[in-house]
Amino acid sequence: MILYPNAKINIGLNILSKREDNYHNISSVFYPIFDCFDILEIKKTNKFLFTSSGLKIPGKKNLCQTAYEAIKNKFDISPVHIHLHKLIPIGSGLGGGSSDASFVLKGLNLIFNLKLSNYELEKISKEIGADCPFFIENKTKYVTGIGDKMKKINLDLSNYTIKLTHSNINISTANTFSKIKVNQQNIVTEKLSEQSIESWKNKVKNDFENIVFEIYPQLKIEKEKFYSEGAIYSSMTGTGSTIYGIFKK
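^ thats the sequence. predicted structure below, dont judge the formating
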């Protein structure tokens, strides 16, 4: 089975409070980007194997393996060979790792005919990572909690062009969160779709931009460049380092 785990962008990202478990409560809109994706192949085999190609993946254990183990521990499925061709930049704020893991869950669900619902898959994916549940249904959502509480919103940007620029900067999510401050201003809400995109520029903010732009001023330049080229709205996604611009077609 071949799957194409896609990226996402954050439209607004606000840090509302720090929790007792050291996670943060957020408010954001996750929007799927289908023309930016990895390639994933899963097939049954005699011994579990994970291999990869494309961009080099840091760390000894990939989230794809974690996803396989999460399913195996619950349903004792047979071994598979997972091969990931990595194209979504690492540490880019595009959710590539989370997407890969969730697509492994969905792929195993089909290959082994487990008949798990999206709700059940989201519950399992939450154990792997905060952003993982979004990629199960893979539709635009208003996201709160630590990224695990989601509500559908009617936001369609298909009539616009979304451009991405990545500066080959791998930003540590944990390190960036350790420096963030709670912000109760300009909070993105589920009513984002009722606002004109033209109004987002002054209302919809990513709270991590101030921190990241101070360390990597070239990212702020990339954002300003998008506006100079006619973008209606531009922002950093996640904790960086990808900058995106929304343009009229």
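The chain has a mean pLDDT of 93.
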